[in-house]
Amino acid sequence: MPPDWELYFDRETARFLNRRGTDIGSMKVDMIIAVGGDGTVLRAIQLAGTPVLGINMGGLGFLSEVEIGEVERSMYRIMRGEYRIESTLKLKVFINGAETLECANEAVIHTSRIAKIRKFKLYIGDSFFDTTTADGIIVATPIGSTSYSYSAGGPIIYPTLDAAVISYIAPFRSRIRPVVIPPDKDIMVRFAGKDQSSVVILDGQTEYAVDERDEIVIRVSENKARFVTFRDSFYDRIREKLIKNVVY
After folding, report:
1. What does the pLDDT look like over 27-85, one tens digit per residue?
2. Model pTM?
3. Separation of CA 132 from chain center
4. Contact 199/68 with Cβ under 8 angstroms?
5. Max intra-chain CA distance, the chain
6. Which position among 10, 23, 38, 214 bears the catalytic label?
7. Contacts of 18 (CB under 8 A, 6+ apart)
8. Residue 124 · residue 221 · CB < 8 Å
9. Is 159 exposed, middle or buried (0-12, 13-18, 19+ CB in 10 A)?
10. Taking Cα atoms as reference points, which of 165, 155, 169 lies closest to residue 109?
11. Positive or negative, the Cα torsion across 226, 229, 231, 235?
């Protein structure tokens, strides 16, 4: 390790290494290295505003920049400053006006009961947009557009674009298609009918129970998710992670 580097460990990792631990949210560091899968990277981004370098020890690892066999070479590249920071938008989620956690990937509103579809009333900005009967609704960031939203038929959005995409999970009416929304428009979801028990899931990690009495508002945050990358193009990541890894 270079002599002018200081290393900090989050509390859970520190326990395994017999080191002193620090809460991620209070770390004053230049970079966070997250070792694990995409969930680990997203958790680090949720808790800190620091650029995150993901080292993949999970499956696909779309948000991870480094595979486990490339760690040493990647650390030397960081020492030489051969990297850049890529910023992409985050989402703020409010339930009945109360702010919850920010999302770097997506906010999902999903039925809480298997095989029980829900009726969602969707508003964009000040305008009513549609009433949709489906298993759920996904509001994804550009980075999140390659995840759950992509599996639900949503488009891939270039990560530096300021836009969100609304995708539907198993919609009852096949004419419903994903919609791309500009950053200055709030997205509001209400429920129609009775017994609409559902959950709001943020980045696949944090859940909030909601029902027909609740109102969910999703808007673009003033904060950014920041990733450490060695690539020159986002399309390199698409080709490597989503095309080369497809099994036919």
Report:
1. 888 999 999 888 888 888 888 889 999 998 877 778 888 888 889 999 999 989 999 99
2. 0.87
3. 23
4. no
5. 63
6. 38
7. none
8. no
9. buried
10. 169
11. negative
- Asked if 4 is an active-site residue, the reply is no
Q: Is the predicted pLDDT of residue 1 greater than 60, yes or no? A: no
Phi, psi of 25 (to 5 degrees): -65, -20
- pLDDT over 60 (residue 248): no
CA 219 → CA 7, 102, 181, distances in Å?
35, 10, 10
Name the token pair of 244: 């080369």
Q: How far, rounded to the nearest angstrom, does the alpha carbon of residue 90 sit from its chain's CA centroid?
A: 8
Which residues are paired to 54 by β-bridges? 34
CA pair distance 38, 150, nearest whole angstrom: 15
Number of neighbouring beta carbons within 10 Å of residue 95: 15
Domains of the chain in sequence order: 9-83+230-243 (3.40.50.10330), 90-221 (2.60.200.30)
Amino acid at 115: A
Yes or no: say if 29 and 8 are a contact pair by the CB < 8 Å rule. Answer: yes
